[in-house]
């Protein structure tokens, strides 16, 4: 017990130090938490015989809470009304984004000889942009005030919905034995049926249970408010996972339920620190489980993915910007603005790590960590130097059209 | 004036105000309460950030802009509101004003502007209910009553703008 508490203290000290470095450098905390986790984890500090944080069950459990709360907050911000209001633009830009980037990732995976489920995991990792990093950079660069922020944020909303459906399907495929390739169609069908049955019921409950959600949280006392919110989200997510259904998607739906309860702003104000604490543990935990040696095995897919998916994201974002009737200049920025990948790619990696094959357990998580480290930094730099990107792209375009 | 409102999912709301020329004022209200104020020169240029305020400060500044503490009035004018739209206003007649040296009958201010002179203050003397033959001199202060619009016309005419 004493040893574990000390380890936890160590973990939070790492979070504090890497967080301070991120703040100082003006970077997102996500990649730095992950790097911090790698450094103090069993694979680096452990091998050097230094005190290290073990990749134990307790850390994993708290990290799980991080995933649940991240997706819960996504659901809070996600509103069907908002999607409906801007359906045409968000829908078209979002579909372009999905139709280019997800299949590209799947094709890359298949090209490396991976199974369909493994390739699907890779597709998800390279598809989903990082809401946290993109939004922070939009604000830092002042793009938030310009028209390009609308298609960027709209596409992120669409991705949120897409990732909920994606996680629902892929969780069943991975946990339902489909990953081993011998589960058979029946087993996959059964786990998918359970997933959609459970999530369907939850969605109905969320749609018609607004009154109940409102009453549960109708309380002055802050402590009771926070505890009750957690007492709804965590048991439902836990029940989902116990049935082999994505706990993340369950949390997302509960978030959607709370978003219309009239308590949304209070939840965000009071629970954001709670989410941030557990999300930090999640990012460090991802680092703890990453063996830098395994990055070697993932190096080739990593390089291929970075080289192919960066221009693909810029292109899909550019086309999305054109859907919003933006100029070529602003549309290119939409593309550049969607390049950073982060938290959700890591959520998918955590799902892959619970899979059955060696590719899922080792290669994909290592790949995802490397990919997120590269794309979060590279994406942010591209946004900062979008003027250079623009000169490069449009000069190339000009010579092409003149040739 | 047109104001454009748009949602910024995960961030807050954005309002854009046309400033009359090409440029727009862009106000981003974060969910945290922070306000960021930008100015965009033209449709194609990037917004320049002017300043940011926290929620409390933004409300205070907003109240100031709204005029809750001080309603700007033209220099030398004092006004009192009677009912919804009727004002009593004090108007200085400066040297060189169009009406200086004329009688009220000659300048025909009531017909032209719709506002009536109810008194003329000249030094310590007050001429109440002046007739058409009363002369207005430079340095006089005219006490005027009428609808807001009429008073505005009156001030413009007397001040020669």
From TrEMBL, chain A:
It is a multi-pass membrane protein. The keyword Membrane applies. Gene3D superfamilies: 1.20.1530.20. It comes from the Archaea. The chain crosses the membrane at residues 12-38, 58-80, 101-128, 161-180, 192-210, 230-258, 270-288, 294-320, 332-352, 364-383. It holds the Pfam family Na_H_Exchanger. Residues 14-380 form the Cation/H+ exchanger transmembrane domain. InterPro entries: Cation/H_exchanger_TM, Na+/solute_symporter_sf. Keywords: Membrane, Transmembrane, Transmembrane helix, Transport. The keyword ATP-binding does not apply. It is found in: Membrane. Its main location: membrane. PANTHER family: K(+)_H(+) ANTIPORTER SUBUNIT KHTU, SODIUM/HYDROGEN EXCHANGER FAMILY/TRKA DOMAIN PROTEIN. Belongs to the monovalent cation:proton antiporter 2 (CPA2) transporter (TC 2.A.37) family. This is Cation:proton antiporter. It comes from Haloferax larsenii.
